[in-house]
Specification:
- With about 170 residues, this protein is mainly alpha-helical.
- Helices cover about 40% and strands about 5% of the residues.
- It has helices spanning about 45-55, 70-75, 85-95, 95-120, 140-150, 165-170; strands at about 35-40, 60.
- Strands 1-2 form a two-stranded parallel ribbon.
- Helix 1 links the parallel strand 1 and strand 2 (about 60).
- Helix 3 (about 85-95) packs across helix 4 (about 95-120).
Length: about 170
């Protein structure tokens, strides 16, 4: 007997493909020349292609799968201020100031994403709604609490720790 960890209505494809068909793959051959070849059609690759094409460069995007197949379709979490490893670990590795720069860059990238969506008039109902980091055991909960405490006040993202007994109220 196989038990699924997924709900019965879980889907293996993005929900937005219900309203917008999945992108197809071109069978056209590659051009003989291009100024820029972008490998990967996720968020980063497509934005790089957009920037270089708008800059007047002939740009080709290739991918082994349909556009956005990987993390960009499954939301690998890039659209957040969540930086890994923790600030304390980054500080140990690179020093406090460089760690702070890394965290600030993550925060700027999230702000930039909202600005890009607005500037391009992308109809995607973009809004910042918060993020829930779950701890799967008591040790992980203690780690989350410690990481929250270690965030320097000038870099801290507003947060609220939700203990186990209150989680149903958050994600019910």
């Amino acid at each position: 007997m196989t038990v699924s960890v997924f709900m019965p209505d879980a889907k293996a494809v993005p929900y937005w493909w219900d309203a917008l068909p999945a992108p197809g793959q071109s069978t056209a051959g590659l051009p003989a020349e291009a100024d820029v070849l972008v490998i990967g059609s996720g968020y980063t690759g497509l934005h790089a292609a957009l920037a270089t094409a708008r800059g007047g460069r002939s740009t080709v995007v290739i991918d082994s799968e349909a556009a956005g197949f990987g993390c960009s379709t499954r939301n690998g979490g890039q659209g957040s201020t969540s930086i890994k490893p923790s600030f304390a670990e980054l500080s140990r590795r690179y020093g406090r100031e460089h760690a702070a720069d890394i965290v600030r860059e993550g925060q700027r990238s999230l702000a930039w994403l909202g600005e890009f969506v607005a500037a391009e008039r992308i109809a995607c109902d973009f809004h910042l709604a918060g993020r829930f980091h779950a701890a799967h055991n008591p040790r992980q909960w203690e780690l989350l609490v410690r990481q929250a405490d270690e965030q320097p006040p000038e870099l801290a993202v507003p947060m609220r720790l939700v203990p186990r007994e209150a989680q149903r109220e958050e994600i019910g």
